[in-house]
Amino acid sequence: MIISTGPTVMTAAIVMIICAPMLREKVPSGYRAAVDGYIYMVSVDGNDDIVSVSLYSRPLNSSRQEWMKGESTRQEQAKALAQEQINLKKAMEAEAARKAAEAAAAAEAQRQAEEEERRRQAEWDAAHPVEAAERDVNNASATANAASNQISADNAQINSNNAEINVRQPRLDQLNGEIAQLREVWASMMKAGDTARANQFHKSQIDPRLNEREPLQSAVDTLQAQNNALSQDVANQTATLNNANQALQDAQGRLQQAQADAEAKRQAELARQAAEEARVQAEREAAERAKAEAEAQAQAEAEAALEAARSKLEEPNVFGFAGFPTAAAITAPLTFAETGLGGYALGEAAAAAAWGTVRTVLADLLGTILAGSGVGAMIAAVTYIPGAGEGSDQVPGRDDINMFLSAMPGEAINLPDEHELLAAAADDGSVEMSVRGRVYFSDGLLKTYLVRTINPSRVRVLSATMDAVTGLYSVTIPAESGLPSRTILVSPEGAPGYQGLPPLATPAHNEAVPDNTGNTAPGVISPSVESFPQADDLDFRDAILIFPADSGLAPAYVMLQSGRDLPGKVTGTGADVEGTWLAGASEGLGSPVPTRIADRLRDREFSSFDAFRKAFWQEVAADPELAAQFSDFMQGRMKNGSSPRVRNGENAGKRVTHDLHHVELISEGGEVYNVDNIRVVTPRNHVEIHKGQ
């Protein structure tokens, strides 16, 4: 007899033997077998091979001599019993493995049969497209009809259930209302302490209604649950119907296509001989036409590309100028550009003088010890505006606003080395600069300043790429802080040709006129470094452009206009002021714009903030109450659009007139022409304000 009590996973096993030879039990480490009252433990390894036999226990009345007498025989019997159990276990495992293999083989055979059936069906469908499509039409129609019928049945049952609900719902609503009212009465009785009367009231008035409501509510809930299930089935059947209709449509399409294909084959055979006869002639004529069309298309594309390139250079948000050659960048320290009209640079003599100015100003700015405010100096002022009339800031016949930029080669303004610029551009990053540039355009003058701020600031580095339309190097600056999107196109070295690959079009190149006697000879430029208390509110719009190594172009530092230099409409309400208006200009954020001045300026449009500033002081001079607070001399200045002077001690260096300060910096999104964002401050207070920022 063999008893197994656990899995056979052991490194040692034991067999127990009692009286008549029998396998007593399976133990965690093997087997126990009983032989003539002696119990033996048989150990097996992980492969179920017997490795040892040992005595576990013997009868109490057995002497040592009796035990030793038949020990070898009993051990062999114990091993035989264990081996019998092991053989049986292995046989069972083999049988289980055989059945599993047969099941797997059957499943694989079934899969292959199904796959073969699908292949044969697909082969038959391909050979009989009309019959296959008709079969699919019939199947889809049957499915659609069944789904439609089920939807109708479900909807009919839903309508019936709704009718049943409508019969019960009025009484159910009435009972709910009555129960709610009666419970309020019952609650008041309980609150009054009349428990007996409250219980009697509940039993006589509320309980009957609860008993009536319960079956009504249960019936309504059951009907609504049925409706929910029916609605879900309607949705499922609708999906089935839609799928069936789609399948029907697809099958009908295949049927029509199969019929059309058959007809096409017949027609093709009829036309084959005629087509063969005409083939040679048609090919010859087609080749001739293709050649003529290709030549015409190439010419049209070339003309269109040239026109597109020229048009792009004339777009109102596109700057174009000649880049600074790596080999000779130092000969051109400054160039200018106007949107849609190309670039213009100083003549040879003026350029030489400008280079001296740039070098002197840069050295002075870097050598100045800052004392609470930035410093700056103008390095160029030019009056030539290509294509526009004298004193105009727009191109005739064009309504858009012209914008300007100034550009300098990196060497002229001491940009970081090429390695640092490349690393910053690859990271969409920036580099730190102590001196930055700012351009202004007003009264027909384009002025370029270099400014050193209190603390070095970051300037973005942009990588120029080849523009497919013009063949020039291009950088686009997204719209920001009141400024539209702007694209800068730079001519490669040797334009209009470069390494045998000329750009499609190049920007117009003209000569700028310095602001002197009106001729192209340079005037005497004496730059003066002075305090810029608003240096941190200059709204710098600058960037460093770098170009591919094979372009032959040096890095360029470009300075664009701020939002304060562009036209705008006045907004804001101002503030009521009492007493001496400018008494607060020397402290805090300064004096607000008076309401009366704001009312007269509101909705007026100005070409630049400079124009607004002039009109602002003229309006102050025209206001009797405000003008009376100033001397005749100061009133005369304001009538001319100039700011009145400040008291002694409120100046900042040579700055002795009141400033207009933007509370929220323009560079941080502050509105340029909103009078509520503007305060009148003294130069000294202006410096203090920007110290705190």
Automatic annotation (TrEMBL):
Give the source's domain of life in one word.
Answer: Bacteria
**Pfam families with a match to the protein in the record:** Col-Pyo_DNase, Pyocin_S
Q: Which SUPFAM superfamilies match?
A: Cloacin translocation domain, His-Me finger endonucleases
Q: Which UniProt keywords apply?
A: Antibiotic, Antimicrobial, Bacteriocin, Endonuclease, Hydrolase, Nuclease, Plasmid
Tell me where the signal peptide lies. none
What InterPro entries would the database entry show?
A: Colicin/pyocin_DNase_dom_sf, His-Me_finger_sf, Pyocin_killer, Pyosin/cloacin_T_dom, Pyosin/cloacin_T_dom_sf
What are the recorded Gene Ontology BP terms? cytolysis; defense response to bacterium; killing of cells of another organism
Task: Please list the residue ranges that the record marks as compositionally biased, kind Basic and acidic residues.
Answer: 111-135, 262-294
Give GO terms: molecular function aspect only. Answer: endonuclease activity; hydrolase activity; signaling receptor binding
Full protein name: S-type Pyocin domain-containing protein
Q: Which family does it belong to?
A: Belongs to the colicin/pyosin nuclease family.
Q: Which residues form the Pyosin/cloacin translocation domain?
A: 423-559
- Return the annotated region ranges for Disordered: 99-135, 252-298
Q: Does the keyword Cell cycle apply?
A: no
